[in-house]
Design goal:
Elements: H1 2-20, E1 25-37, E2 52-65, E3 68-85, E4 91-109, E5 115-136, E6 145-168, E7 171-191, E8 198-223
Antiparallel strand pairs: 1-2, 1-8, 2-3, 3-4, 4-5, 5-6, 6-7, 7-8
Keywords: Signal
Organism: Pedobacter petrophilus
Signal peptide: 1-19
């Protein structure tokens, strides 16, 4: 029994020592390989609860201080989008959406083991813009196509939780979830065909956007010892 306990103790010490070497670096560079996220609402979009998949759309730089790391991160997403506007039988919007953000914050590990859960908080700026057209779905309605330019810019507050797995001392796999509290100034610019009429409206609003998963790799640099 003593030999079994001694073996388990030695194994735990070995795993802890192996994982600690991952914290013995001043800097870490991270690359987001995959994410599932909610984008801010565009115009009178009906499917606002849908999730969007993105690949290789973010990067991070961390300054490590024992169990606390200070992080600077950025993300960029641009893609074609098509959605029902106002209602499912009213209008169809078609165009491109561009979304990017810059954040600063921190994360704190719960332990130094090979598998490291952590929590953190980010604060930053987010911009979202849609450019495209709006057309009537009903073929009996007037065949008027409007040009739309809708933009949002504002503050984002992001609590987060995550998990890191040490593959080797200098390399981690990470996965995290977060919730964006997004306060933005929105401007909607709608122009009729030929520029015969133009409507510009502005709003200030809060949105709560869930990002269930972001995953990628982190590389540690510049050892402390």
């Amino acid at each position: 029994m003593k030999k079994i306990l001694l073996s388990l103790f030695t194994l735990c010490i070995s795993l802890t020592s192996f994982a600690q070497t991952g914290a013995d670096y001043n800097y870490t560079i991270g690359f987001r390989a995959f994410s599932i996220m909610q984008l801010p609402k565009i115009l009178n979009q009906t499917n606002t609860q849908d999730y969007t998949k993105a690949f290789a759309n973010g990067a991070m730089l961390k300054f490590n201080d024992n169990q606390i790391s200070y992080r600077i991160s950025g993300a960029y997403f641009r893609n074609d989008t098509r959605f029902d506007n106002t209602c499912a039988t009213c209008e169809i919007a078609d165009g491109k959406v561009t979304d990017y953000s810059f954040k600063i914050g921190f994360e704190k590990n719960f332990n130094y083991s090979k598998v490291q859960p952590y929590f953190g908080f980010d604060l930053g700026y987010r911009s979202n813009r849609f450019t495209g057209t709006i057309a009537q779905r009903n073929p009996a309605a007037s065949n008027v196509v409007q040009t739309a330019d809708a933009s949002k810019n504002g503050l984002v507050l992001t609590p987060l939780i995550g998990l890191k797995v040490n593959i080797i001392p200098q390399l981690n796999f990470y996965a995290e979830s977060n919730l964006d509290f997004y306060y933005s100034y929105e401007k909607q610019d709608i122009t009729e065909t030929g520029g015969v009429a133009r409507t510009v409206t502005t709003y200030k609003k809060w949105e709560f956007l869930l990002n269930p998963i972001s995953a990628g790799l982190q590389f540690s640099l510049n050892g402390k010892n």
